[in-house]
Design brief:
Structural class: mainly alpha
Oligomer: single chain
Radius of gyration: 23 Å
Low-confidence stretches: none
Mean pLDDT: 84
Number of strands: 0
Strand content: under 5%
Helix content: over 70%
Shape: globular
Number of helices: 18
């Protein structure tokens, strides 16, 4: 608390005030489910673009990517290349299908293509894994702010919960998207500000010199590491370009194409052309920002080379950036970076609450209770937003001391992402698959990937965990393709 000056507090208060105003004002007049779930498909594509970026970048990424630049090099960008290619696949394959009908939830497509078994299974997968992963991201943000400025974790969680519930429950997806515009702008400007500050403090030439001497600007790794002459061990080298590219391709396709948290905002565009523009542009902006984040890490390395600090030697690499923010940044800039961290935290929380609420309403409530009035639908959606917000917050607080659980939760999405992506690809790209077959395929694939995950975690097999999504996708499609589709369920040429 003593690290913050009056100007920093003023910046924080102004930020919260602006976010609340934008969320409530832009999300007013919610008349029906179409308004609340997808903004009646009237959201400008530029706003959707910023919302995608704001949701993809979590506090863990904002604070963590600089640590990669500090301790390693710029090979992290190899993942971004695969991620960019994935956006074209999502834009021209997935969105074409999702815009063929007015879907509020993408899992409704699986009901039309296969049946309710596929719909409910994927929805349950999404609800569980998204709650787990987002709860962890929320905790990481709260811990970061707690360490940085001496806040109690539960104070941070409570503030996040109250503010995000107010505007998300009021305005639904419109409030989420427009506040994401504010939040995305804030944290990107905060990152650029730190980058400029480092350049001025250290000197651009010095950063380049020190970084070059330390090999920090090494980008591509086309030669995998082979241990003991055993060629198959290369598949465990996560820094190999092939693995990084495939992981970026598969993980981003699964995230943007099968995760309601990400796709819901794309469904809010007026038409599929604008939706495509938003998702592709998000990659073109995301790569430069990832580059800036890595360069911040290299700048931090150069800064502490020129300004030795005995405390730094005792810190882990992911603690360097928070320490720099707390100890070096001047008043004003410190407050601005603080709201940047808050922004990426809240943008992840609000979208998750909205997506969990929408999926539950569309797939489990609206689908069974056809007599609900528009007002009842909106009211129940708001109640679910509050409920899921509380669940996320309680879960985050409950695992505050569980490091192993945090690691497992961050990786657990790789267990379900593959089976979910496999089912969607089976439906979109083939004329095979049945409702019962999909449930069997997803179940078997999940068990297979979970077993591999355990063996990898225990160092029993030389395989990188990034391959799990590939294996999960392939095995689900293979088993699912053994079952024939009902003629009425086979998509017709359009």
């Amino acid at each position: 608390m003593e690290h913050l000056k009056a100007i920093d507090w003023l910046i924080v208060v102004c930020y919260f005030s602006v976010v609340l105003f934008v969320g409530i004002y832009m999300g007013r007049r919610e008349k029906n489910a179409a308004d609340f779930y997808i903004g009646n498909r009237k959201i400008p594509w530029g706003a959707v673009l910023m919302s995608i970026i704001a949701t993809e970048i979590s506090a863990a990424t904002f604070l963590g990517v600089p640590s990669i630049g500090y301790s390693e090099n710029m090979q992290y960008l190899q993942f971004s290349i695969g991620s960019l290619v994935a956006r074209f696949l999502v834009a021209y394959i997935f969105l074409s299908v999702f815009y063929a009908s007015t879907y509020f939830s993408i899992y409704s497509y699986l009901a039309d293509r296969f049946g309710n078994g596929s719909r409910y299974t994927t929805t349950v997968f999404f609800l569980i894994t998204r709650t787990l992963a987002s709860g962890v991201r929320l905790l990481l943000a709260a811990k970061g702010l707690s360490i940085l400025f001496g806040f109690e974790i539960w104070h941070v969680l409570l503030v996040f919960l109250i503010i995000t519930i107010i505007y998300t429950a009021t305005g639904g997806i419109k409030a989420v998207i427009w506040t994401d515009v504010v939040q995305g702008t804030v944290f990107m400007l905060a990152g650029v500000s730190v980058f400029v500050f480092l350049g001025i403090s250290v000197g651009w030439d010095e950063i380049l010199r020190i970084g070059n001497e330390a090999g920090k600007f090494h980008l591509f790794n086309f030669t995998p590491t082979v241990e003991g002459g055993a060629w198959w061990t290369c598949f465990s080298d996560e820094k190999w370009f092939v693995i990084a590219f495939i992981n970026g391709l598969m993980a981003t396709t699964a995230s943007l194409g099968t995760d309601q948290d990400m796709t819901q905002r794309m469904l809010a565009c007026k038409d599929v052309k604008r939706a495509r523009r938003s998702v592709i542009s998000s990659g073109l902006i995301g790569i430069p920002f990832a580059c800036i984040s890595l360069l911040i890490g290299i700048g931090l390395f150069a800064y502490f080379q020129k300004n030795p600090d005995p405390t730094v030697a005792s810190l882990q690499s992911d603690e360097i950036f928070p320490y720099f923010i707390r100890s070096v940044l001047p008043a004003g800039l410190k407050g601005f970076v603080l709201i940047g961290i808050i922004a990426v935290s809240m943008s992840s929380l609000d979208s998750t609450m909205s997506a969990l609420s929408t999926s539950t309403m569309v797939e489990f409530v609206d689908n069974r209770k056809k007599d609900l009035s528009p007002k009842q639908q909106v009211m129940l959606s708001r109640i679910l937003i509050i409920v899921f917000g509380i669940i996320l917050t309680v879960f985050a607080f409950s695992i505050r001391n569980e490091d192993k659980l945090i690691w497992m939760a961050l990786k657990i999405t790789s267990i379900t992402a593959g089976p979910m992506l496999g089912v969607f690809l089976l439906g979109i790209l083939t004329k095979r698959g049945s409702d019962t077959g999909n449930v069997i395929a997803m179940g078997l694939s999940t068990v297979l990937v979970a077993c591999l995950f355990y063996l990898i975690h225990m160092d029993k097999i030389p395989l990188g965990w990034t391959w799990l999504i590939v294996i999960g996708t392939a095995s689900t499609m293979f088993v699912g393709a053994l079952f024939a589709s009902s003629p009425s369920k086979i998509p017709q040429a359009r």
